[in-house]
Structure formats: C-alpha cells, structure tokens
Design goal:
27% strand, alpha/beta, UDP-n-acetylglucosamine1-carboxyvinyl-transferase, Chain, single chain, five-stranded mixed beta sheet, 2 domains, four-stranded mixed beta sheet, 421 residues, binds uridine-diphosphate-N-acetylglucosamine
C-alpha cells in the first residue's frame, strides 16, 4: 500500500504542464474500435487507467502498442465482443466500449461495473439510448448483454446530460443507418474531443459542443491520428493549489476556456488569474475568501473539482455553501477533511463550510481520485504532517502528481511499505 506524506506551510511556486485528459483518453481509445486499421493517439497521460483500457481492447482482439504519451491501436476486421468484470470494475469509464461494439460487432457482453465511492452510477440512459437505435438488452450473471444486428438512427432525449450515455450513443450512431439526434446531450470538452476524433475518422456529426448532436450514420470509418485534449481537472487542481497555498503557479498546455467558472471562483476568492499563450497563471497573496459553489453539467462548475473547492473553503475567510448535483457520494471525503480540522457540515447534497485559519495534519484516506487530490491540497495548508493513504486512487488520474508538486516546492513524498522513494 502506498501513501503520500505531506507537510503543510509551503507556498507553491513554479510551472507545471498538464497531460491529456483521463476522461477523454479512455473514450478515444474505445472509438478506435470503430475503424479497422491503426489509430495513433498522442498526449496520452501516463496513468494506470490507460494500460487497463489497453487490456480491455486486447481482449476484444485489438493490438495496443507504445506507451504514454503515444500509443497505437490496431483493430482487426472482426472484433470480439466481451469486456470482463476484472477490468471493467477497475475503470468504470470502460463501459464506453458498449456503443462501438454494437456498431462494429453487432453484439456486446460488457460487465456491469458496480457501484463506486462517489455513489450509484446507473446505466439506464446508456441502455435507453442504445435501445432507441435498435439494440436489445439482457442482464445476466453480472453482465449487460446487448445485440443489434442493425442499428438505425433515432431521436433520443436524455433525461440528464450524462457524459457516458452521450458517448455510448454517439459512438453507436456514427455507424447506424440514417440520422440520429441526441437532445440534452452532454457537452463536456471531452465529448467535443471525441466528436473531433470521430469527424476525423469520417463521421458526420453536427452540433458539436452544443446540447443537440445530429449524427448522420456512415457505412464505415477510417482510423485517424488524434491528440488528446488537455486534462482540465488536473489543470484546475493546480489552480486551486496555488490559491490555497498563497502561491503562484503557471499551468501550461491547458485550455483556459474549459475552466472558466472554476477560475472565476478563484478570482472571487481573491486570486489573480492571468492568461498565458498555452495556459494560465494563478497567484494569490492572501487568505482566500469563501466562495459558494454549485456543481452542474458543463459549462457549470465541474463535480470533479468540488472536493478542491471544499478544501479551499475549509481554510477560507468566511462561510461557503457548496451544492453537489451530480454524484450523491461525492461528500464522502468530507469526513476525512474533518479529521484535518475542517469545519464542514452536510445536509443531503448541500455542505456548509466554515473557514478556519488553519487545518491540522493527520492520517487520512483517499476515497476516490479527486478526493485524494483535494486531501493532498488540504495537507499542504495543514500544520504538521498529513499522510494520505490509498493513493492508488490519485494515481488513476494524476501523472506523477508527487513529482509535479515537489517541483513547485511542496514538501511531499510517496511512501511505499514505509520506505521513502
Ligand atoms: C464522467 C467522468 C467523471 C465526471 C462525470 C460528470 C469519465 C470516465 N468520468 O462520468 O469523472 O465526474 O462524467 O462530469 O469520463 N446517470 C444515470 N443514468 C445513466 C448515466 C448516468 O442516472 O445512464 C447519472 C449518474 O448516476 C450520475 C449522473 O448521471 O449521478 C452523471 O453521470 P455521467 O454524466 O454519466 O458521468 P460519467 O460518465 O459516469
């Protein structure tokens, strides 16, 4: 078991570069299944989800070579159709192979991923959308079993702009017969990234970046080369680290326009945000002011940065009201923050955060990727030492997080079996 040991009190100063987005790379890897031949992906992050997804693709008959930041996926004419539980349960995002498999193989047997630490994550919208395109579903022995000898375009309204459902339906519709429209589609930058890759493969998609996607199915797609969109959540994590530690961080290879609300919250908190040619800078000289946050689908405040917003408010001047509208389990890490002295109370999906002058270092546990990163940020502003355990979660989303923070002057080390590395 590995943990991070963090000492509080340092001002984080310097430059970091972000890599490609975890939430995009898994989807564009799945999209490669839609075309026979070799797809090349660049700006691939060096995180553990990528080799696991590679295993899933290999299990379907594809050949995956190379290593982050560049991988090649060679897809045969005939695909397998099963994604097993051992892999799917480790990265829930891998259910995005469902749409491509139905489109290419006409059937899919994909393990149900089960619950995870941020709450129940249903697949009903994925299933409803794919059924509208003509697929039939069965659920047996922990697997979703889907068949679709022929997918046909349809009008689909999503009750909620689910990222995963939009991706699965989109990847099925690009090879369906006729026209599909997805209304109330998610419009996260990672969806736009996927659409751009599909367009480069020959897909006909209109309304990219809006909440209505119009897809005209084509008979076949060609493989392409694609550069993965930068990770806005990693970029945002460093932005909050700068504001919390009263530091100054330049975040390179980031897309500022993907973080507008999250950065505006930092301005409201008293930080200065500046634009760079390839990213942005955040500088903060004073104790942050409390800021209210409401998570919503893009372009609202991202749920994946909500733990960082709560961590910042925990040491801010004032009282903040934080509302989580996307995942009901996203407040689980608050009990860990309270162990660091945070004054946070929750009522359903609302949290009231009363800012304290300082936090107090303690052993805490990462409950998910973003919670783990937020606890590291809290540790950076806590008196004494904080040990964050279960950091395998953090490693799923942040490439060389410890090294990046060290380069900014953070006193942080990774402990493996009690040995410093
Ligand atoms: C993706 C991201 C995750 C991010 C989230 C919201 C990946 C790998 N993960 O997750 O980091 O926090 O988007 O931006 O890309 N829902 C249903 N039925 C469905 C599908 C979803 O009820 O069929 C619900 C979920 O339970 C959840 C909400 O909709 O409460 C949002 O889920 P969704 O947008 O689908 O997120 P993911 O794609 O799972």
């Amino acid at each position: 078991m590995e943990s991070f040991e963090v000492s509080g009190g340092a001002r984080l100063v310097g430059d970091v570069s972000v890599t490609g987005a975890k939430n995009s790379v898994l989807k564009v890897m799945a999209a490669a299944l839609l075309a026979e031949g070799t797809t090349t992906l660049t700006n691939v992050p060096d995180i553990v989800d990528v080799p696991i997804m590679s295993e899933i693709l290999r299990g379907l008959g594809a050949d995956v070579t190379g290593h982050a930041p560049e991988i090649a996926i060679t897809v045969p004419a005939e695909l397998g159709h099963e994604a097993d539980y051992e892999h799917v349960r480790r990265i829930r995002g891998s259910v995005c192979v469902l749409g491509p498999l139905l489109a290419r193989a006409g059937r899919a047997r994909v393990a149900l991923p089960g619950g995870d630490a941020i709450g129940s994550r249903a697949l009903d919208l994925h299933v409803m959308g794919l059924e509208r395109l003509g697929a039939t579903f069965d659920n047996a022995h922990g697997y979703l079993i889907a068949e679709a000898p022929q997918l046909s375009g349809a009008q689909i309204w999503l009750d909620f702009p689910s990222v995963g459902a939009t991706e699965n339906v989109l990847m099925a519709a690009v090879l369906a017969k006729g026209t599909t429209s997805i209304d109330n589609a998610a419009r996260e930058p990672e969806i736009v990234d996927l659409c751009e890759m599909l367009q480069a493969m020959g897909a006909r998609i209109g309304g990219v970046g809006t909440s209505t996607l119009e897809i005209e199915g084509v008979d076949r797609l060609q493989p392409s080369a694609h550069d993965v969109v930068p990770d806005r959540i990693v970029a945002g994590t460093f932005a909050y680290a700068a504001a919390m530690t009263r530091g100054e961080i330049s975040v390179h290879r980031a897309r500022t326009e993907h973080l507008e609300i999250a950065l505006d919250k930092l301005v409201q908190a008293g930080a200065q945000v500046g634009q760079l040619d390839d990213g942005f800078t955040v500088r903060n000289d004073n104790r942050p002011r409390a800021v209210d946050v409401v998570t919503l689908p893009y372009p609202g405040f991202p749920t994946d940065l909500q733990p960082m917003a709560i961590a910042m408010n925990a040491i801010a001047d004032g009282v903040a009201f934080v509302t989580e509208n996307i995942f009901e389990g996203r407040f689980m890490f608050i009990d860990e923050l309270v162990r660091l002295g945070g004054d946070v109370r929750t009522d359903g999906h609302h949290a009231i955060v009363r800012g304290r002058e300082s936090l107090s270092g303690a052993p805490v546990r990462a409950t998910d990727i973003r919670a783990g990163a937020a606890l590291v940020l809290a540790g950076l502003v806590a008196e004494g030492t904080t040990t964050v355990s279960d950091v395998f979660h953090v490693d799923r989303g942040y490439q060389q997080f410890v090294e990046a923070l060290q380069s900014l002057g953070a006193p942080i080390v990774r402990r493996v079996d009690e040995t410093l590395v």
